[in-house]
Amino acid sequence: MGKPSRERALPDNEAKAVSRNLRISPQKLNLVAGLIRGKPVEQALADLEFSRKRISEDVAKCVMSAVANAENNHQLNIDQLVVSEAYVGKNLIMKRFHARGRGRSSMVMKPFSQITVVVRELDEDELENSRKRANGGKVKAKRDTVGASSAPAAEAKEAE
After folding, report:
1. How many Å apart are CA 158 and CA 30, to the nearest integer?
2. What separation in angstroms does the CA of 51 have from each of 2, 98, 109?
3. Cα–Cα 20 to 30 A to 56, which of 19, 32, 71, 118?
4. Which residues pair with 16 in a beta bridge?
5. Cα–Cα dist 99/42, whole Å
6. Tens of pLDDT along the chain (160 residues)?
7. Closest residue by Cα to residue 24 from 62, 58, 60
8. What is the pLDDT of residue 153?
9. Dihedral Cα 58, 64, 67, 69, nearest 10 deg
10. Phi and psi for 55 in degrees, rounded to 5?
């Protein structure tokens, strides 16, 4: 007889993944986590791919793991996923000593951290709102033909 299963802590439309023992300080990792909070998953992965931070590759792995958990374990639609939470925690600290002048030494702290990424499935209108917020409120206009976009401007000049 095994242990009884624990109730699910997250709602049915969410999934999470945790990456532990990342060799970076939590303060630096939080800068990368701030890049992806509230963004749709495809945009968050694109931002991480082109980020110049070394740790962004490990954060991208964690986001992809959360997406895989959502798809395989909870049957969520991956096209409607948004990074709802990305938070950072402390982990162990390696303590090393550095030789100093006059026979003294000083301690060097080498911190580790962990990141937790929670993705949420949104419906279509909420997803569109999150895309607008991620783009800074700018909405890209769709043009069918090149001449169609300049036609209303020409008509407005003739009316004046």
Report:
1. 55
2. 45, 32, 26
3. 71
4. 118
5. 47
6. 788 888 989 999 999 999 999 999 999 999 999 999 999 999 999 999 999 999 999 999 999 999 999 999 999 999 999 999 999 999 999 999 999 999 999 999 999 999 999 999 998 888 888 888 888 776 555 555 555 555 555 555 566 5
7. 58
8. 56
9. -70
10. -80, -10
C-alpha to C-alpha distance for 120 and 12, rounded to whole angstroms: 9
Residue that the structure tokens 């600290």 belong to: 93
Pairing of strands 81-99, 105-121: antiparallel
Cα-Cα-Cα-Cα dihedral sign, residues 18, 23, 25, 29: negative
3-class secondary structure per residue, the chain: CCCCCCCCCCCCCEEEEEEEEECCCHHHHHHHHHHHCCCEHHHHHHHHHCCCCCCHHHHHHHHHHHHHHHHHHHCCCHHHEEEEEEEEEEEEEEEEEEECHHHCEEEEEEEEEEEEEEEEECCHHHHHHHHHHHCCCCCCCCCCCHHHHHHHHHHHHHHC
